[in-house]
Amino acid sequence: MQGIVSDYKRMSVHDGPGIRTTVFLKGCPLRCLWCHNPENLTALPALSYTHKLCVGCGACAAVCPKGVHEFRDGQHLIHHDACIHCGACVAECFPGALRIFGHRAEAETVAAKLLEDRAFYEQSGGGVTFSGGEPLLQPDFLREVMTILKSEGVHVAVDTCGDVAWAAIETVLPLTDLFLFDIKHMDPARHKAGTGHDNARILANLHRLSALGTAVEIRTPVIPGYNDDEETLTAIAEMLSGMPNVLSWRLLPYHSMAKGKYEAIGLHYDMPETEMPGTERMRSLCEALAGIFPGVKLSADV
Asked: How confident is the model over 209-234, as a mean pLDDT?
């Protein structure tokens, strides 16, 4: 069975316990204003161009069959709408300024690549994390890869926004050691304003996982002016305090470093200008919330 894979990140230490390899799958049901992986929003391939790596040699324009690359007045212009993602330009780009996110891959091929790092998993108590986008939009493919990994004794985590059909979660539930589950806001209207969807299905799925006792780590991106107020975070903490299956709750400070990714793939970054919350502010939030949910921690904490 084939799936649509975007990228791999080796030696990851923030996507579950130990040293991990994170595999990113394409497609997502949400449209979060602050999304850090815009290249994975749709299942379609995405051509990415990193300006600072380009040497202006023109090799890409020479081989492109659709005129995607144009050199004008010393500028390299990319016509993303014309791209058919054939990969000809990427193959010719020796400095690596061009790449395509998104390719079809067999489950066996993906599993074999992930198992190349097995020694790191075994030595560190790590494993593999499936992320995205939203990996549970490809549940059958995910199950097939996970089945191979579990047969080799690999710890498997699934990083999900939670806004998927329960049937998709059920498909991989017996094979999942840990869910990394996003909770962005408790208010349905505010959730929709920031992500494009309300949170009804997300919360329903989390409560079902709680009832089953499935191991979960909650993740909340802390966005100034959106969900960093005491009322919002306290509401999340109070909900989690009644869920013994939630092992920890990580607060992830907002940053705008993904803005360059949007430019690279020809998308507009719609997130309003927002300051990144400082370490002192994040520590203060953790201390205040720990009295309600002791498992709260920052993204960088072990």
From this structure: 97
Q: At 87, which amino acid appears?
A: G
Mean pLDDT value of segment 183-211:
98
Kind of pairing between the strands at 127-131 and 20-25: parallel
Distances (CA, A) of 46 to 7, 65, 102, 202, 223: 12, 17, 7, 27, 27
Average pLDDT (23-48) is: 97
Chain-centroid distance of CA 244 in Å reads 25
pTM: 0.94
Nearest to 226 by CA among 176, 171, 260, 186: 186
In three-state secondary structure terms, 138 is coil
How far apart CA 187 and CA 121 sit, in angstroms, is 38
Of 121, 148, 127, nearest to 3 (Cα)? 148
Structure-block tokens of residue 188: 């349905």
